[in-house]
Design goal:
Order of helices and strands: EEEEEHHHHHEEEHH
Bound molecules: zinc ion
Strand order of the largest sheet: 1-2-3-5-4
Radius of gyration: 19 Å
Largest sheet: 5 strands, mixed, barrel
Oligomer: single chain
Number of helices: 7
Number of strands: 8
Helix content: 25-40%
Structural class: alpha+beta
Length: about 240
């Protein structure tokens, strides 16, 4: 049914379209992934100003017509994340976070956990760019996003046979840690990397554990391979 509705949303990507328009990919609180066109938004005096850019959290009024794209008819800023925008590492981390949401969450169903996680991470990047753009928090975001999307790796016991001891490897195909007898298709996972992933999932994002490069690389590979095998998406390296 054609009509207008309001929702809060984060701009994931913004693409120039035609003479003066813009197509925005949004992650919304109430409708999940949304694509919308903002007509005339690239004109100097557009009422949308510069707010239809990545990482803006907005209150939107959208018109749902018969086409695939909604039309933006109103937009006000909830948070523009200005500090994040002026910090290179934070900008990179925010870009990778939005890219991961784009690839992993393509449904029009609302996912409040994923939406709140994205808003929380962008807020943290804005408040404390140095800490939160570090691999510890970036990977914790990715693990929590995988969990919110329903693809969290199995970390408590062997993903192949259920064994609780000697978990020294990780298998993306099995979807989690694997024991010594099942490690065939996996790669070695250090105790630190295993503990980091468990801690990162258990703690709030603002208290994500810090990680060194070796642990970060293993944890990143574990999440990336799990998502490749089970969600069929390939993400850019997290950090
Ligand atoms: Zn096993």
């Amino acid at each position: 049914m054609p009509g207008s509705f309001k929702t809060e949303a984060v701009v994931l990507r913004s693409i120039r379209y035609g003479e003066a328009d813009r197509v925005v990919h949004l992650y919304s609180a109430t409708r999940g992934r949304i694509g919308a066109i903002a007509k005339g938004s690239r004109r100097p005096k557009s009422r949308f100003g510069g707010r239809l850019e990545p990482f803006f959290r907005l209150n939107l009024v959208l018109y749902e017509g018969r086409g695939e794209l909604f039309t933006v008819t109103g937009a006000s800023t909830l948070d523009g994340h200005a500090r994040l925008r002026s910090n290179g590492p934070a900008l990179g981390a925010a870009g990778r976070a939005c890219d991961a949401v784009l690839r992993l969450l393509d449904s029009g169903e609302p996912n409040p956990a994923a939406y709140n996680l994205l808003c929380n991470y962008l807020g943290l990047l804005d408040a404390d760019p140095a800490v939160t753009s570090a691999p510890g928090a970036a990977l914790a975001f990715r693990l929590k996003l995988a969990l919110a999307a329903g693809f969290s790796p199995e970390l408590a016991s062997c993903a192949s046979c259920g064994e609780g001891e000697h978990l020294a490897a990780f298998s993306g195909a099995a979807g989690g840690v694997v024991c010594a007898s099942c490690e065939g298709g996996g790669f070695p996972l250090s105790e630190e990397a295993h503990r980091y992933m468990v801690d990162a999932l258990a703690r709030p994002l603002s208290e994500a554990p810090a990680v060194g490069q070796r642990v970060a690389a293993q944890a990143d590979r574990a999440v990336t391979e799990t998502l490749e095998h089970h969600a069929h998406v390939r993400l850019r390296a997290a950090a």
